[in-house]
């Protein structure tokens, strides 16, 4: 991988680790800080997605090809990007355990309406929740 892509990937994984780390109690007396949790689709994109897909959503190439989201006709049907974010595909990991349905809906809607994409049909949290993996409980003995 090129150094630039490697650095962006490392940054992205560091951000993901910070977002998924268990909350720790602040020390008495204050002074503790927590990483900001992305709320809007734009924030999720900038903090999570841009590490690989780049700030301009044009993707990248080198040792690995990262698909461009900019001007991507595959985003026209909302189920496609939702499925990719929820389940992962190829080198793209699943974010079902990392992001909440509202965050996934927000980032998919953001990408579908920015970067030269004009797919304005809203993406709902309910659509995403229906596509999330179901938790399988195992009976205890």
From TrEMBL:
Signal sequence bounds: 1-25
Keyword Iron-sulfur on entry: no
Keyword tags: Electron transport, Heme, Iron, Metal-binding, Respiratory chain, Signal, Transport
Cofactor: heme c
Residue intervals passing through the bilayer: none
Source superkingdom: Bacteria
Lineage: Bacteria, Pseudomonadati, Pseudomonadota, Alphaproteobacteria, Sphingomonadales
Protein name: Cytochrome C
One Pfam family hit: Cytochrome_CBB3
The species this protein was found in: Sphingomonas crocodyli
Domain Cytochrome c intervals: 36-115
Gene3D superfamilies xrefs: Cytochrome c-like domain
GO molecular function: electron transfer activity; heme binding; iron ion binding
């Amino acid at each position: 991988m090129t150094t630039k892509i490697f650095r962006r990937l490392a940054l992205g994984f560091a951000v993901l680790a910070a977002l998924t780390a268990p909350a720790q109690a602040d020390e008495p007396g204050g002074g503790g800080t927590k990483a900001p949790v992305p709320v809007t689709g734009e924030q999720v994109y900038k903090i999570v997605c841009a590490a690989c897909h780049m700030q301009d959503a044009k993707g990248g190439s080198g040792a690995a090809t990262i698909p461009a989201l900019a001007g991507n006709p595959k985003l026209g049907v909302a189920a496609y990007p939702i499925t990719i974010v929820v389940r992962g595909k190829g080198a793209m990991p699943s974010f079902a355990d990392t992001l909440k349905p509202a965050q996934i809906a927000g980032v998919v809607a953001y990408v579908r309406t920015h970067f030269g994409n004009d797919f304005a049909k809203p993406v709902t949290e309910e659509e995403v929740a229906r596509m999330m993996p179901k938790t399988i409980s195992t009976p205890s003995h």
